[in-house]
Amino acid sequence: MGRKLLLEKIDVPGIRGYDVYRSNGGYDAVEKALKMSPDEVVEEVKKSGLRGRGGAGFPTGLKWSFLAKPAGVPRYLVCNADESEPGTFKDRYLMEFIPHLLIEGLIASSWALGCNHTYIYIRGEYAWIVEILENAIAEATAHGWLGTNIKGTGFDCRIHVQRGAGAYICGEETALIESLEGKRGNPRIKPPFPAVKGLWDCPTVVNNVETLAAIVPILNIGGEEFSKIGVGKSTGTKLISACGNIKRPGVYEIDMTITVEEFIYGEQYCGGIPNGKRLKACIPGGSSVPILPANLLLKTAKGETRMMTYEGLSDGGFATGSMMGSGGFIVLDEDQCVVRHTLTLARFYRHESCGQCSPCREGTGWMEKILHNIEHGKGKLSDIDLLWDIQRKIEGNTICPLGDAAAWPVAAAIRHFRDEFEWHVLHPEESQRRNYGLAHYADAREVTM
Amino acid sequence: MAEDIKMLKVTIDNITVDVPQGTTILQAARMIGGDVAPPAMCYYSKLKGSGGKCRTCLVEVNKGSEADPRPMPKLVASCRTGVMDGMEVKNITSDRVVDARNGVVEFLLLNHPLDCPVCDQAGECHLQDLSYNHGKEGTRYEFSRRTFEKHDLGPYIQLHMTRCILCYRCVYVADQLTEKRVHGILSRGDHSEIATHIEKSLDNDFIGNVIDVCPVGALTDKTFRFKNRVWFTKPVDAHRECTTCKGHVTLWQRGDEVLRVTARKDQWGEVEDWICNTCRFDKKKTSDWVIEGPTKVDRHSVISQGHYTGLKKPEEIFKAVHAGRDPKLLMDIHSVSEVNRPGIALSELPGPATSETFNVDKKS
Prior knowledge:
The complex is a heterodimer of chains A (449) and B (364). Chain A is α/β, with parallel strands linked by helices and 449 residues long. Chain A has helices at residues 18-23, 28-35, 38-48, 60-65, 90-97, 99-113, 127-142, 173-180, 209-221, 223-228, 260-265, 294-298, 310-313, 317-320, 338-352, 358-375, 381-394, 402-426, 430-433, and strands at residues 76-81, 117-122, 158-163, 204-208, 230-231, 234-235, 238-244, 250-254, 279-283, 292-293, 328-333. Chain A has a five-stranded mixed beta sheet. Chain A has a four-stranded parallel beta sheet with strand order 3-2-1-4, with helices on both faces. In chain A, strands 5-6 form a two-stranded antiparallel ribbon. In chain A, helix 2 (28-35) packs across helix 9, helix 6 packs across helix 9 (209-221) and helix 16 (358-375) runs antiparallel to helix 17. With 364 residues, chain B is α+β, with helices and mostly antiparallel strands. Chain B has four domains: 7-103, Ubiquitin-like (UB roll), CATH 3.10.20; 142-222, Alpha-Beta Plaits; 226-327, no CATH class; 333-363, no CATH class. Chain B has eleven helices and 14 strands. In chain B, helix 2 (95-110) crosses helix 3. The interface between A and B is medium-sized, with 30 and 34 residues.
C-alpha cells in the first residue's frame, strides 16, 4: 500500500473535532508556515511540484507566483469546493471527515499569498458539510488560528463559507467568482485572468479543496520530500474517487506509482469487477475526460503498462489516451451500454451549460437530441458523423472549458466505440432489449469468479 | 496626449495596420474594413463588457506578438482580444476560421424560427446578413425548435424570445443606460430567456434603445410592428430639439408618413447616439423634425434598394488579402473558345450561323 498523506489520520476516532486533530499533529503546518516568510512557503510549494487537483493539473506553485501584488489592493484566496463533476466525490469525503485539514491548508496558503479574507465556495447540495466546515472554522478561531493577529504575527485572516446554488458551471473559476460576487454564474472572458483581476476585480487565486489540503503535508514533510513521491511530474498523492462496476467503490489515496490495472483489480483498491463480469471501459478522471476501452486503459497504444499518473493517463493524447482530470474514476463492465452512457453525460452537459456562448448552448442540446434518437432506436448512420462534426465545432470555440468537457466524452465514445453506435442504429429493436455485449475492446483477462 | 499612446503593428489577412494600444483585433480589422472585419453579433463597442459570446468573430492568431511569436492554440474571439505588437491574424484566409464560423452560424440558426417573411427585422437583420455571408444552405437539425410566448415589455416594446440569439446586448443596455436593472436572463443553457420578471416594467426614458441594439427581431417596436417592410421605407436623417437626448435620429418614411424613428447607425450597425423614448415613439409627424437628407446606408443592400444617393461601394481588398496575388477569375471566353471566335460578327452573317461559319482556318 502506498504512502498516505491526506487520509493518513482519517480513521482516528473524533478527527473531525479540533482537539483530536490537534493532538494528532494538526496545525503543525500552520505553526511552521507562520515562522517562514510568505515567499518561502510559495517556494516550498513550487519545490513540491504539486499540480492542481481540480482537473486541469496546472502547477500550483506557478499559479501562486502569477498572483499580481499591487500595493493597497487586497488579494483573495478562494477554495473551490463546488465539486460537481459526475463521478467525483473526493472533496466531499475530505471536508466531511477531516475538515480541519482544509482549514489548516487554507490558513497556510492565505499566509503565503497574503490574503486576509479567504472564501470557501461550496456546492449548494453539500448543505450538511457547510455546518461541519463552519464548526471547524469556529473551533480554529477559538484557538487563535484565525481572526486578528494570528499567534502574534500581526496577520489577520478570516475564512467565509459561501454556498452555491448547485450549478456545475460555478466550478469554473471565473463563473465561481461571478457567483461569489452575487451575480449570475456566467464564466468571464479571459484574459484578464483571476490572478490579475478576480474577485471584486482584485487579484485572486482559486484552488481546489484537495490542492489546498495538500499544502499541509507539503509543509510538514517539506516540498523536496513531497516531490520524491510519485513518478516524474506527478508528485505527491492523489485522491481518486472510484465508482461504477467495482467491488469496492470509494475514495482512495494513491501515491501515483501504481498501474491502472493494480488500481482496478488490486485488493486494497477497487478489488476488481463484481459478479464475474469483465471490464469494458473506464473514464479515469471525471465525466469530462475521454472514455477509454479496456484494451487501451490497461496498456498504452505503445504496449506499455498504463500508470495512474498525470502523464500515464494522458499518454497517447486524446487519440489513445485520456486525462487524470479530477480523479473521478468511473468503471464500466461488459453490461454497460456506451450509447446510453454517452446520452446520460450529454444530458448532463446540456442541462448545465450556462447558455452564454452559442456553440455550447445550442450544440449540447443538439447532441443530446441526436444521442436520444440513437439510443431509442430512431437513429441514422449519418447521425454518428453529424455528432462527430458537432463536437468538433464546439471544442475549443467556447468561452470556458465546459464546451470542451461536453465535446470530449462524445468524441471519445465515437472514436473508440463506433461499432456499438452503428449496431444501435442498425438494430433498433434489438438494442432496446439487450446490450451490445463484449466487443474486441473488452479486457482479455480471464474471469476469476 | 497622442504621443503617449503606443502604436502597435498588427497584420490581419496580410494587411498591416498601425493601431493604438488597447485596440482589439476586431476594431483593428474594422479599420481595414471590407471582408477583413469579422462579423459580430454580440459585440457592441458602445456597451461595456459586451462581446465574446456569439463566437462569430473567432479568428486565428498565427503569431502572438513580436516578443512571443508562438501562435495561439485556440481560435480567439477577436472582439475581446487585444492587439499585441507584431501580431499576425488570419480571418478569411484561415480555413479553420471559415469552418468554425460556419459551425457557429449553424448553431445560431438551430433554434431560430427562420420566420423572416413575417419578421419586422427582415431586411436589416444581422443574422440574415451573417447567414448569407458565412452560413451553409440547409440545416442538419431535425428536431423541433424551442419556442416561447411573446411578451410585452412596457407599452412600446415586444419581446419575441423565440427569435433571440442571446447576445446579451439588451441586458447591457438596460444595465448601463438605465438606473435600475430591470432586465436580465432567466434559466440557463438552451432554455435561458431574456425576461424582466415583472411584465411591463421597462419604463425608463432610454429603454427603447434595446430595440436598436437587438441584432435580430426579438425586440421590436410596437408602434412599427407589421406596418411596413423596411425596404419599402425611406430612411432620412433628421433632428429636433430634445431635452432628454441629442435628438439626432433616422426617420423611416413612406411618402410623407413617418413610420418609425430609430437612432442613427454607423456602417457596423451600431447606434451613434442613444435616443430617448419620446423621440422614438411619440414624434411620428414630419413637422416634428428638421429633415437633413437621405441616410447613407451601406450595410444592408436590401434597404439601400432605391436609395442610390450616398451609396458607398465596399472596398476591394482581394489583392491585398492574398498577398498581392490578383487571380483572373473571369477569362475572356472568346480568346479560348473554338466555336465563338472573335472577329466574326454574327449580325453580319447572311443566314443562321453554323459551325462552318467559324471554321475559317480549315476552309482556307
